Amino acid sequence: MEARREKKKTCGTICLKYLLFLFNICFWLAGGAVLAVGVWTLVDKSDYISLLNSSFYSASAYILIAAGAIVIVTGLIGCCGTLKEKRSLLIVYLVLLLCIFLLEITAGVLAYVNYKECFPFCHQLDRELRQNLKLTMQQKYQQPGQESITQSVDKLQQEFKCCGSQNFSDWTDSEWIQNAQNQQLVPDSCCKTPSDLCGRRDHPSNIYRVEGGCIEKLEDFIQSQLYILGAVGIGIAFLQLVGMMFTCCLCRNLKEDLY
Predict the structure, then answer these.
(1) Beta bridge pairs of residue 191
(2) Is the pTM of this model over 0.70?
(3) Residue 3: how many CB atoms within 10 A of its CB?
(4) Buried/exposed code over 26-39 (b: 16+ C-beta within 10 A; e: otherwise)
(5) What is the pLDDT of residue 190?
(6) How far is Cα 255 from Cα 163, in angstroms, rounded to an integer?
(7) Where is it chiefly localized (predicted)?
(8) What 3-state DSSP class applies to 191?
(9) In the 8-state DSSP scheme, what is residue 171?
């Protein structure tokens, strides 16, 4: 009878061990995906995000990268503790999971509170960002020493299929258009089929005339990134609760097996 109970207890420990190991693999992969999204945003999209002259949006990419790295490290500790059946490593893993979970809850509460407090000023902030982008495009495009801004604007207009900050007519007041000797009306990157000096015609058949201009396209992209950040946070938080439950059970079973 005693041997049967010991065998049953050992089988339960083995099942928990492999369940927790499988969980850690999923947790590790989730961290890798989060890290990849953050790096992709920072490397591929940072050029035109920087046009807004605001660190708020680029901060979301750094948060994704940091969160992904922490999840990967935590997952590796969990895998090592599970495979070697080291209660000390499992306790460290449990504490890390708990700390990350509490940080996520705190960050979510602070974000909600700050959003409620700043809500009356959000439209003012939005107008300032729109104005910043418009001035950057009008004053720095094709100007000496502003090659990176020029490339970012061209990339923004081509990738999002838009022209101007809010409208193609924004380019009328730009320093480059006013000083140009080639009678350009808009940059060549506004054209649906870019070619040299194609920006001399601003007819709808030739250039993009998207309602709201590039700023709305850019804001939609940034909003989607923030949604991804929120969804990832909720998903990881759920995984952490499952992981903490498995870890507690495995630690208890290992302690019982030891005695």
Answers:
(1) 207
(2) no
(3) 7
(4) ebbebbeebbebbe
(5) 92
(6) 66
(7) membrane
(8) strand
(9) G
Which residues sit opposite 207 in a β-bridge?
191
Output the CA–CA distances (angstroms, integers) from residue 35 to 23, 69, 127, in the order listed: 18, 6, 32
Cα(84)–Cα(133) distance, rounded to whole angstroms? 55
Give tens-digit pLDDT for 100-143: 777 767 666 655 555 554 544 455 556 667 777 888 888 888 88
Distance (Å, whole) CA 80 – CA 54: 41
Contact 58/163 with Cβ under 8 angstroms?
Answer: no
Which tokens belong to 200?
Answer: 């001399």
Return the pLDDT at 7: 42
Six-digit token string for 229? 């950040």
How would you label 169-207 residue by residue, b for 16+ Cβ within 10 Å and e otherwise? ebbeebebbeeeeeebbbbbbbbeeeeeebbeebeeebb
Per-residue CA distances from 223 to 13, 86, 140, 191, 214 (Å): 45, 43, 26, 26, 14
Q: Are 48 and 152 in contact (CB under 8 A)?
A: yes
pLDDT average, residue stretch 83-109: 77
Report how far apart the first and last C-alpha atoms of the chain are (Å, whole number). Answer: 17
